Amino acid sequence: MAGDAPSSLPVQLVEQPRLLKLKESFIAKFGSAPKFYVRAPGRVNLIGEHIDYCGYAVLPMAIEQDILIAVEPVNNDVVQLANTNSLYLDFSTSVNDIQINKTKPQWHNYFLCGLKGIQVELAEICTKSERYIGTEGGGMDQSISFLAEEGTAKLIEFSPLRATDVRLPSGAAFVIANSCVEMNKAATSHYNIRVMECRLATKLLSKSKGLDWKKMLRLQDVQAKLGVSLEEMLTIVEEVLHPEPYSTEEICKCLGISLEDLRSQILSQNTQDVSTFKLHQRAKHVYSEAARVLEFKKICNEAPANAIQLLGELMNQSYISCREMYECSCPELDRLVDICLQFGAVGSRLTGAGWGGCTVSMVPTDKLNTFLKNVKKAYYQNDVQRLALENNSLFATKPGRGALVFVEA
Ligand code: GLA
């Protein structure tokens, strides 16, 4: 059973000499009084050493001795840290630029780790939370929402969750255009069917390579276990999976399980009655798209003279793969992508789950105004419903900052 959340305790500072002293040091350093104090106890392990990270139980207790921290929330991004022990120097940084130097650990790094940990943890809690609605989401939305920083896109890697800056080239704008078609991911099974197709492809690929297929859930697990490149995974997909849809009977036969096992152990609730799955096409999309992500990052880092062209080409390939291999587009998205390319986008693609929603297009800055005017005319102007939504449906945007709490000043 989980323990209680850290509690709060009203105290009379005059009766707490250590807190009183801490308050005085705080005022001397920052010129204002702390708003609250935090206590973290020391601990002693009674028995069970070096076995927790192997998954075994240990037997510690918290002790009476502790560390005290005085805190004052501020209305800006700056974290200022000071230690009552003058051996440990003052430190300050922006919460949006937390750098933890692992080769030279310093006292303040422990605070920065806490901040970073909370951001990652919140992202993972929100990813798990979304699954209660019934969709088997991957965590992209929640991760970028918490880990975003102004002025940069991020490469988000999973297990463990990590975010790396990807600086987009200057000279191009990213334009979002809403197809005005709505697809409710939770109310339909489109999304989960794709997740299940990838899961089944994982199982079949693993089985064919002699891996412990029961434990494998994600296509990336297969690549990691085999220790091969994404290109090699594409070859393996060609060798192992056939393009014709797989019936549930065939899948059960390949895996040596019953239909009941397939339903109860592998499929989600809203895909129980699906009778055929496309595995070859879905796996092909996933491995090729994963390679495109890495290529996109590489081009952004290296910033060659034709970066915009190259990135646009990758976006176009991604869209074609989504449409042909993953089949997550729809006629309106197809039309919108065509229009965007026709009016000057160097790359245009559906973004997010698909089957509706938005496109994202990369447009050279000098063409932006005419692009917006022409797309408006071609996609929104002649449709009353679309036109009503147009103000919020077609706009250029920039990498913004992540989720935050506003407090009244
Ligand atoms: C939705 C999900 C994400 C991701 C995208 C598709 O937005 O919430 O986790 O799977 O679809 O890339």
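^ alpha-D-galactopyranose complex. The chain has a mean pLDDT of 92. Residues 109-131 form the longest helix (23 residues).
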